[in-house]
């Protein structure tokens, strides 16, 4: 989705507010408070993230296993030496990716299928 | 990093909704849910996350053939080196040779390689490169200063090392190349580089395990950069030895640095059996 805002009047200030709210897929249409997982792009692209201590960032990568072959999920540190905290990466396989992301089973430190952790100072 | 083989992924995705592709094959759709948690107090974790797809993965000893067009364009391959990860005190050495041969006469490609951080190498940003005319090769080894881990802040390949290989096309027209990788286990021969005009003498102690079926092989590499006439001399000072010589060049463009290593009379341009006995 793209939202374009065009200000045309040169004399007055052009101030505006844009907000997108997600509604739960329920009958009561409750407001969504959960931050959706971010998409990991394909090919040579990547996603950068900075995570404060104790917080978790979530991502997803749609896959067709018959076509994907062997996969490698790779996270490397990007801050200068000594300034970058370690990270723990856990992964779950969401069997049916066609369902609403609100029903996805996210990997948690105590619930995952595969885990990896860095303890290197770099 | 998380390394997932296709077989395990298929098992994990079993029971998901399926769809049919254009060729009639049934495929399954699932998604990988990845969570990254920062684990060090007082420090943010800044991370770059990417996924390498198995469609362009290199496997040891399995050559791939690729076609490529567009001057300056790159085609990329990758593999995960577990050499340093699997190293032990008794077997600490690991090696990878990434070798490329040219299949289309008159065409040329260059090799650029990045290690550790998963970036896609370019002609301006790479860790290793080979830009000869014709066949190219890159040699990664535990002896390389880049992997010696001489200080705690240097790269640590023992956590697993992603290697990204970029093949750069040097012509507009479509041309074909072959690419092969071996390692991380040390191959049966060690490769040493010979300097021009400097003779090298090697002595191997007697070894009861050595036989015609289990020979000890050492390979020497020499570059004829000036493409001039050259003379090579081999001599058995003690015992007997077989010598083989082979080349890769613009005219032998279908060989690569791996396949061109002559190890018998059949795949050598020149060979001789020498003995120190008169």
Q: Could you characterize what this model shows?
A:
The complex is a heterodimer of chains A (122) and B (278). Chain A has 122 residues and is mainly beta. Chain A has one domain (35-122). Chain A has one helix at residues 65-68; strands at 38-39, 47-51, 56-63, 71-77, 87-94, 114-117. In chain A, the strands form two sheets. Chain A has a two-stranded parallel ribbon. Chain A is extended and about 60 Å long. Chain A starts with 37 loop residues before the first strand and ends in a 5-residue tail after the last strand. The model of chain A has no long low-confidence stretch (mean pLDDT 81). Chain B is mainly beta and 278 residues long. Chain B has a domain at 51-182: Sandwich (Jelly Rolls), CATH 2.60.120. Chain B is 4% helix and 37% strand. Chain B has two helices and 17 strands. Chain B has helices at 6-13, 83-86; strands at 2-4, 18-20, 26-28, 30-38, 45-52, 64-68, 74-81, 95-102, 109-115, 128-130, 136-141, 161-169, 175-182, 189-193, 217-221, 240-245, 270-275. In chain B, the strands form five sheets. A four-stranded antiparallel β-sheet of chain B has the order 6-13-8-11, with no helix packed on it. In chain B, β2 and β3 form a beta hairpin. Chain B is globular and about 75 Å long. The termini of chain B are far apart. In chain B, 27% of the residues are buried. The model of chain B has no long low-confidence stretch (mean pLDDT 84). At the A-B interface, β2, β3, α1, β4 and β5 of A face β1, α1, β4, β5 and β7 of B. β3 of chain A pairs antiparallel with β4 (30-38) of chain B.
Q: Any descriptors?
A:
heterodimer; A: 122 residues; mainly beta; two-stranded antiparallel sheet; 3% helix; extended; B: Jelly Rolls; four-stranded antiparallel beta sheet; globular
Topology summary:
The complex is a heterodimer of chains A (122) and B (278).
Chain A: E1 38-39, E2 47-51, E3 56-63, H1 65-68, E4 71-77, E5 87-94, E6 114-117
Parallel strand pairs in A: 1-3
Antiparallel strand pairs in A: 5-6
Chain B: E1 2-4, H1 6-13, E2 18-20, E3 26-28, E4 30-38, E5 45-52, E6 64-68, E7 74-81, H2 83-86, E8 95-102, E9 109-115, E10 128-130, E11 136-141, E12 161-169, E13 175-182, E14 189-193, E15 217-221, E16 240-245, E17 270-275
Parallel strand pairs in B: 14-15
Antiparallel strand pairs in B: 2-3, 6-13, 7-12, 8-11, 8-13, 9-10, 9-12, 16-17
